[in-house]
Amino acid sequence: MKKQVHTLVVSVIFVLAVFPLRSKENSRFTALQVSTINNKSELGTYQIQMVNSRLQPYIPGDIDEIVRKNRKKNERVYVKLDNNIRIMILSESEISSPNFKPLKQIEHVEE
Q1: pTM here?
Q2: Is 52 left (phi over 0), alpha (psi -120 to 50) or beta?
Q3: Which segments of the chain are extended strands (E)?
Q4: Tens-digit pLDDT profile for residues 64-88
Q5: In whole angstroms, what is the distance from residue 36 CA to residue 31 CA?
C-alpha cells in the first residue's frame, strides 16, 4: 500500500512539473496579464486591441521586441497577431509630442 501511494505521489508531482512546461512550449501565445508586460519604458506607447471580442487577450511573450521592430518614426502601425488580436504601436513622433498621453494596455474595439 505504501509503495502504491508513493508511486502515485511521484506520478502526480511529475505530471504537475512537466505538463506546464509542455503546454508553454506548444502554445503560440502566452496569456497576457496586465502585470506581465516586461519593459516599463514601453508601457503606454502601444495597445493590445481585441477586435470584436471580449475574450482574454493572448500575445507572444516577446511583445517588446515586436513593438521595437515595428515602430515607425512618423506612422502609427497595427500588427495583427491573430484574427481578433492586434497591437497598435504609436509612432516615435506621437510619443515625443508634448500632448502625448499613455494608452491603456488593453482595449476592446468593435469594427
Answers
A1: 0.63
A2: left
A3: 30-31, 46-51, 58-59, 77-82, 85-89, 106-109
A4: 899 999 999 999 999 998 888 999 9
A5: 9
